[in-house]
Amino acid sequence: xxxxxxxxxxxxxxxxxxxxxxxxxxxxxxxxxxxxxxxxxxxxxxxxxxxxxxxxxxxxxxxxxxxxxxxxxxxxxxxxxxxxxxxxxxxxxxxxxxxxxxxxxxxxxxxxxxxxxxxxxxxxxxxxxxxxxxxxxxxxxxxxxxxxxxxxxxxxxxxxxxxxxxxxxxxxxxxxxxxxxxxxxxxxxxxxxxxxxxxxxxxxxxxxxxxxxxxxxxxxxxxxxxxxxxxxxxxxxxxxxxxxxxxxxxxxxxxxxxxxxxxxxxxxxxxxxxxxxxxxxxxxxxxxxxxxxxxxxxxxxxxxxxxxxxxxxxxxxxxxxxxxxxxxxxxxxxxxxxxxxxxxxxxxxxxxxxxxxxxxxxxxxxxxxxxxxxxxxxxxxxxxxxxxxxxxxxxxxxxxxxxxxxxxxxxxxxxxxxxxxxxxxxxxxxxxxxxxxxxxxxxxxxxxxxxxxxxxxxxxxxxxxxxxxxxx
Length: 472
Description:
- It comes from Roseateles asaccharophilus.
- GO terms for molecular function: efflux transmembrane transporter activity.
- Residues 1-26 form the signal peptide.
- Residues 230-257 form a coiled coil.
- This protein has two domains: 1-24 and 108-143 and 315-347, Outer membrane efflux proteins (OEP), CATH 2.20.200.10; 31-106 and 146-313 and 357-471, Outer membrane efflux proteins (OEP) (Up-down Bundle).
- By secondary structure, it is an alpha+beta fold.
- Helix 6 runs parallel beside helix 10.
- It has helices at 2-20, 61-64, 69-81, 83-104, 148-214, 220-255, 282-288, 290-311, 354-420, 426-460, 465-471; strands spanning 110-120, 128-143, 316-327, 337-346.
- It contains eleven helices and four strands, in the order ααααββααααββααα.
- Strands 1-2-3-4 form a four-stranded antiparallel sheet, covered by helices on one side.
- A hairpin with a 7-residue loop joins strand 1 (110-120) and strand 2.
């Protein structure tokens, strides 16, 4: 009865010690820092809001790109095969496991064991002493009186959540990157078609100039000008072909595999329609953008590390306990109870300033994390403001470029007619051809810029972030 009581007392002491664990937390109280940006977007960039339009974060990418089946198919392939996204997912798994390891240190490790020991008696009588033990053991369990283990666990949890937000940010960037790469490829295809048409036209002009030169109706200057224009068109075609191939290579890298043959047809840039999403307020961007949330979780981790560093200055208490049975005869092993309980207290006295330096390092890291968080917020604000500025001006630029392209096309048609009748010379024709080709190129670039602006605005407003959070 006495042995049972002592065993119960020792286990009760261990339980009481466990209840004491975590009774103090030396980490600074965390509060989300105020966003170091204006409360609203610049007035010049802020568009008129559409009352019924959903916020970008709540609009899945499948709906945003609903008008382009090819882009949707490419995004689905990229989400399955992109290697960068795969690494990001594995980093999340790794951070989750590291958090579980850190959190497990807050709890005692209980082991079951069976041991036996035989040794000769010290008096030289030839007698063999035997000791057999069986039971449960708790070895070197540290009481978390000052929150060191708790803060280490919270730091690991925040690091895991930051990694998860980083994976979400990588996913949103991949979606936007694939859409932009397909738009660039489509623009390169259209430029290649325009270059081929231009070369065919200039080769026709060269043949006509050569015929006129042979019959004495054109000068050597006219022939040389036509040859120069045809050569320039061939060079432009080669450059357009190279740009098209490079754009496809970039898209293949993002998709993570060669482009399948059965993809839907691409939408011409002129026919592409992407929805406009409302900008909302800057505070809404902070809530929805995963990169901002990632920076905040990193700040939380640095904040918790300060508490862990401070706790190292105070005493640490470790406990070791066991409860089970022991006997000198293996046959009587489970008849006699046995227990042990030991504690150790270590108080830092002299460490040459190591613990204080660790606190200073933790505080410096927290300051760095704060500056990085604020920089992330400012970068997010600037990206949205830039995208809104493009949204406000690209429509007007596109309208003006279309007007110029139409006018240059009409001028070229008139000059070609006059040249065929011998009224205009080859220099006028060459100038009209160059101007019309340049206007068509510029129009194509503005159409691409407008489409990319819609993609960028959707991305920087956290497009699809709410849907991503549900699926992660």
